[in-house]
């Protein structure tokens, strides 16, 4: 029977060793840091800046069905400001978004400084990323193309000549307010202009003001995207957003 | 003399009015918030994801002169991992960067999970954005394509089929350490995969570890960018960075 | 008439200068940056760590009317854990708060490591600032007194001997979640232990777990403050919060 | 021999089960998240706001040996502004600090608004936390007691009557600059006034300006703490800092 007890002891030893090891020198194994919980949605990316499959296409060149406001014209796959009719805004409201938008200032240059190819992408209708013909133009840098208007000059001037299509890829985090109206988290924006990073998640200080200092005021979580009528014949195309 | 004193009084009145107004009801004018100090550099953007004029081109399809390490092969404008020779790293070190890089996993699928088109973009040689053939593939999400390896799963799976070129546009903020080695500011990374935002300035927790938890260790401000040899025949092309 | 025209010219010059200056070089005056909008509430501070006039007193030494849960005892102006009856929690829920709380571990030391004067302040019932008798005691630092349990070791060990009253002054920012459950802003906590800063607005990684890694789960904006029954006879007194 | 083989099989099974489990469902054990690496320094806290053992005492009521600048007077354990002689600043420079300082405005009130018990705590000599007799006084809130001057009004007015000693407990994170002068991380400050949180890690926008907008300029990592001579007879005592 001796052999039995030897074997039995071995078994006990094995088990208790295993237990002791687990207690005293726990081993990290690769599987412990594998996180299977959140499975990212499978989407189909677009090619040549076209919308990925999970995007909301706001303007594909055909109509302004997703927009309201000014009486702007659609022609040749682009929509152009109709001066004096006011800006246009999406019917749908948005919070955090990735936005792709292309714009073109008039080929014939007329005016200078702020008076040349001026329009704007108004995130949530109140936080402006400036659109301007800044090719061989001069203005205050915190109001030039790609500026967060009067808050943050862009890191670089990556403008193309007037008449050429330019792109903005924007990552926007909406502000969060407390119930009593105070700010819980400011808005942030990243802007890539023609493939060049020009705003690196800068903190937005409040609605972008022409006069005076910005000051946050509580607003709904989702608000329309707006494009500005600044009297210049700026055109837009290929506009899509992904809700983040 | 009366006329003199009337005129004189008018002058005094004008001056004092002007003074009083300035004191009591100072007026904001638009010019006060025009900031002319920092003039952004004028650069020429690239087209079709080519490098802008202020970028450092790390690989344009011709040679690996900017790199050292593994004995990888350049062919048809692409460089491909030479399994077993180790990763390659830039001769130059980088801190904060905007990085564009394109990669392709082998058209013939061999293996699954982590064993399929596996490589990696190692920011500063220690913070990995995962490269993997994730097209109709399954693995732990925090290790899939575009993950900050074992730290942050991507927001979406925007993979293209094996054999197709895919792109990463990365915005990287290097960590900052105090003199005594403690962390003053962690690293952050934003990743756009094939035009789709998949990492939104996530906070990097430390070097990306296969086993165990990440932990920051003080390192130089600038360090080489590395591409991983994970035994799979992953190719790369069109690699450029802009120092931020 | 010459004198008239000289005077008249001077007046015109004065006016036009003034106008030109306003247009071209607008003057900043101190008043422009005086902000009269938000008037802070006038409150009466406490002396010797007593509650200020705008605080909610949770325990002033007399009763547990603001609490529910375990059957703890009030004696001599302090409340002491009744082992086995469970923790106690405030009837009212809280979001962002400034919290003052005083605690005392038993004068007679019995046990070591985690088994000595162990309790905990659970912010929103799930984020623990550890309470432990850490005077000449040894345990894992990310579980010692003032740690954010298993997430952040304190910056210093400012413990007093067992049997003495110690204080925590805590500034807590609650996490913010999106409607779909994802985290919009993590929680942060600052802890001052006996007047010494030991946690400097560290980012809380999720509920503080004994086993495994923390992971946020969406919860209501306001939740009760809890004190832990960890079987040790820890006492508390002078507990007040200010809602931020 | 059958019994042997049964036992042997059991052993093999046990081992292989154990192996399989480790591979497929690795178990988290509490020890894995115990972090023993960083051992916080043991210090002795002060009582009644006295300096803890690791603090640098800048003024204990006896002399101004740690200071230079204005010709201020030490009397009865306090130091008082000597109007017209200028501010005083520490000989030693500081970066991130916890600061305790007590101050008192003159018992006899003379003047109002900014002209009453005005002085200031200048972090790194350029970021002012305002000192003012704000007891039943009125001024622009972003310039009142505990404001980050002209940047952030305090959350509350926790002032004591003139002639009484008041305290500031300040947590300050110095800004970090890049080599080229750009800001890598702004400064942050938390202020507790008489035990009441009045600034909750607000972001400092640059040097606190009397006229115009703040703008960061690169400066050394460590700079003296300064106290302002604003012509009023403000006194200070019990000043200590802990370097963070």
Task: Tell me about this structure.
Chain A is mainly β. Helix content of chain A is 9%, strand content 34%. In chain A, the strands form three sheets. In chain A, strands 2, 4, 5, 7, 11, 14, 15 and 17 form an eight-stranded antiparallel beta sheet that branches. At the C-D interface, strand 1, strand 10, strand 11, strand 14 and strand 15 of C face strand 1, strand 10, strand 11, strand 14 and strand 15 of D. Strand 1 of chain A pairs parallel with strand 10 (156-157) of chain B.
Secondary structure class of chain A reads mainly beta
Uncertain residue ranges of chain A: 1-23
Helix content of chain A: under 10%
Outline of chain A, from the CA principal axes?
Answer: globular
List the chains of the largest interface with their residue counts.
Answer: C-D, 57 and 56 residues
Number of strands of chain A: 17
Sequence of secondary-structure elements of chain A:
HEEEEEEEEEEEEEEEEE
The CA-CA distance between the termini of chain A, in Å, is: 70 Å
Put simply, the count of helices of chain A is 1
Strand content of chain A: 25-35%
Overall average residue pLDDT of chain A = 92
Rg of chain A from C-alpha positions?
27 Å
Largest sheet of chain A: 8 strands, antiparallel
Oligomer: homotetramer
In short:
The structure is a homotetramer of 244-residue chains. With 244 residues, chain A is mostly beta strands.
Task: Give the arrangement of secondary structure elements.
Four copies of one chain form a homotetramer.
Chain A: H1 2-24, E1 41-42, E2 56-59, E3 67-69, E4 73-75, E5 78-80, E6 88-94, E7 97-104, E8 119-123, E9 127-131, E10 156-157, E11 166-173, E12 176-177, E13 183-185, E14 188-193, E15 196-203, E16 223-227, E17 235-243
